[in-house]
Design a protein that fits this description.
Two copies of one chain form a homodimer. By secondary structure, chain A is of the alpha/beta class. Chain A has two domains: 120 residues, 3-Layer(aba) Sandwich (Cobalt-precorrin-4 Transmethylase, domain 1); 95 residues, Methyltransferase, Cobalt-precorrin-4 Transmethylase, Domain 2. Chain A contains seven helices and ten strands. In chain A, the strands form two sheets. In chain A, strands 3-2-4-1-5 form a five-stranded parallel sheet, sandwiched between helices. Chain A is elongated. The termini of chain A are far apart. Chains A and B meet through helix 1, helix 4, strand 5, helix 5 and strand 6 of A and helix 1, helix 4, strand 5, helix 5 and strand 6 of B. Strand 6 of chain A pairs antiparallel with strand 6 of chain B, so a sheet runs across the interface.
Chain lengths: 227, 227
């Protein structure tokens, strides 16, 4: 039976693909991925070493500043192209940076294609896990709860979440560092910034010492205890 | 330089090890892992297909009902055995179910060995990601926050966390289903139970229809929106 695979390719380091992802990418005839208006995009770049030449490729292109309507249109077109291949009997793998279901574009393709085709989601190493590994900081220990929070949350929502969670990772934090610093200052919490985790230009330092940072930056909010 | 590796082996399916984990396990002479009083334990079982014969193995054994003091003693002994091998020039890989820093026993070894040896943490596919993949439910979409919560939290803490997080995964939920059902009932939230994700006897059903469930069960708390 033709199958649509949503494949997490991990946070940046090629070797953090799973054995399963590598095996499937060897086999499927069609590979789709989100991409900027020009170029390959992060997911295709990360998985590159595992994609043999000669695949049919579908780049689902959207501008960096796409609003929800613009993104919806791109996903509609991408889903239609993917459906065409599935209907023609060709398995399709959709590459997703990190994990497909944690802020992954695969969520929006799943929404459009679920129920029509056999679908398998192959989970991947999400970037908060890789950032914690790089910093050698626990994400959650013993009876702690950790919140994974997009930095686009309002200042009030951020504060409510950070008040109740023992630890947190704030994602895509680059454009929101000032808001985040105000909240963490009020709550008296320390944090570590990790920029472009897993890439050769990865940068890691205490949030308090970081000036500006790029879009793909994560902030690890430390626990209240000693660990 | 001798190195201690903390290696996430993923949630249960052998192929969800990363390519990096598989490569390191081929190479290191010593493999350590948490284990029950008898038998191999989950991490060793999951990674088994990737561990060649002839490795030196260290089982860090503790009873299923070990309290914090009992666990501390087991980690002290495990850390001492690991340190002995590192001092003798042998790299050691510690196997961790899921990810090493998300409720992973590696956190307690890192605490004991950090600063004394070169350490590298290799992140792995955490079980909440695998459970979401199995259920084909988003963990977090667009501007949502997701909380990963150990089911041992008090009923009041669980409720506070579930009130502010858009979605949540409650881990090791088996013994705490009644408490969780009360909280979710009060908040009017739906949820899916996933038991032993990735193993051949995996079970998945709406929490409302689940009777009892084993220790290694996760509860995916659905979002408030339409996705």
């Amino acid at each position: 039976m033709t199958t649509l695979y949503g494949i997490g390719v991990g946070p940046g380091e090629a070797e953090l693909l799973t054995v399963k992802a590598a095996r499937l990418l060897e086999r499927v005839p069609v590979v789709a991925y989100p991409a900027p208006l020009r170029g390959d995009g992060m997911a295709r770049t990360i998985a590159g070493p595992f994609i043999p030449a000669g695949k049919i490729e579908i780049a689902i292109r959207m501008g960096f500043t796409a609003d929800r309507a613009g993104a919806d249109e791109a996903y509609d077109q991408g889903a239609a192209a993917i459906a065409g291949h599935l209907e023609a009997g060709r398995d399709v793998a959709v590459l997703c940076e990190g994990d497909p279901l944690l802020f992954g574009s695969f969520i929006y393709l799943l929404q459009r294609l679920s129920g029509r085709f056999a679908i398998e989601v192959v989970p991947g190493v999400a970037s908060p896990l890789a950032a914690a590994a790089a910093a050698q900081l626990p994400l959650a220990a013993w009876d702690e709860a950790v919140a994974l929070i997009p930095a686009t949350k309002s200042e009030a929502d951020l504060e409510r979440l950070l008040e109740v969670a023992d630890r947190a990772v704030v994602m895509k934090a680059g454009p929101h560092l000032d808001k985040l610093r105000r909240v963490l200052g009020r709550l008296g919490r320390n944090a570590t910034l990790v920029e472009r985790v897993g890439f050769s230009d990865q940068r890691m330092l205490p949030l308090a010492e970081a000036g500006a940072a790029g879009y793909f930056s994560l902030v690890l909010v430390h626990g209240k205890g000693k660990l």
